[in-house]
Amino acid sequence: MTTTLNFGNLTWIHLPEPDKNEIKKLIKRYDFHELIEEDLFELSTQEKIDVYEKNIFIVVNFPKYDTDIKKYVLNEFSIVMGKNVIVTMTRFKTNHVERIINEYKKELRERDLDEDFKISPYYILYKIMDTMYDKTVGILNKSSKDVIAFEEELFQSKKLAKTLLENLMIKKRNIAFLKHIFLPHKEILDELQKIVPKFYKWDLDVYFEDLAYKLDKILNNIEISFENVDSLADTYNSLMNIKTNSVINILTIFTAITWVLTLISWIYGMNISLPGQTRWYFFLIIIGIMFVVSVCLIWIFKKQKWI
Questions:
Q1: Domain 242-303 adopts which CATH fold?
Q2: Which residues contact 212 (CB under 8 A, 6 or more apart)?
Q3: Residue 63 pLDDT more than 50?
Q4: Full-model pTM
Q5: Residue 110 has pLDDT above 70, yes or no
Q6: d(CA 44, CA 289)
Q7: Residue 123: count of CB within 10 angstroms of its CB
Q8: What are the domain boundaries of the chain?
Q9: For the domain bounded by 3-241, which CATH number is listed?
């Protein structure tokens, strides 16, 4: 559903999950450049910033969590800015943008005239990106808490559950995906700081510098989270190897002991005459020999610190 806001000479049009008819009407109304028209129809998910005579066109991606597949997907933001108009389109419905719209309405009613610079496409762009960056910081904070929980489960649990490894791999994949999303933002922010002054008289450098600072913080947190998850995954594999080696060690010792006992029983189980075969007490002697051999082997293994 299209949302249109008018603030004096400024118009903000927001289209979540736009269809082709909505895009066609918009292009016809504002006569956007034909290359912008192509990009709006394609929804290419490729980050970019293009400067035209009357407009700036930006494509940036932000994460959208899909609870069904437990992973993030790309939510493409296509933004067209003109002198008195800003058009924002999102591939998926985004509650954060809708909240910005509602907050913006309220703030503008209470705003002083000396803050007129905030009634501009470029400041709205800043608000959108700032809110999405704040959302991402929240995502990473939650991710850090999840990693701590995984670590506690890893070292406190008596059994290494398969679900723990699955959760670690899902978390690792999602963090890597976040890194893939936000790395191109740095170049776009650098370009915006150079371009905006050519289109707008007010100095907005401090706002875009704030975005650059938050982006650096996000990328650093992503790097730290990825290293932590990667380290936990390695620790899990190491513990599993230790557990597997312990099991194999016990089985090997058991096999070594039973092999000697099997050899003795195999020899006296043959269908030929053997010493002591006719004496009733010889069975007890064989059992005693087996017991002594077992005890001796266990003592040797312990002395060698194999068990």
A1: Methane Monooxygenase Hydroxylase; Chain G, domain 1 (1.20.58)
A2: 186, 189, 190, 193
A3: yes
A4: 0.75
A5: no
A6: 79
A7: 20
A8: 3-241, 242-303
A9: 3.30.460.20
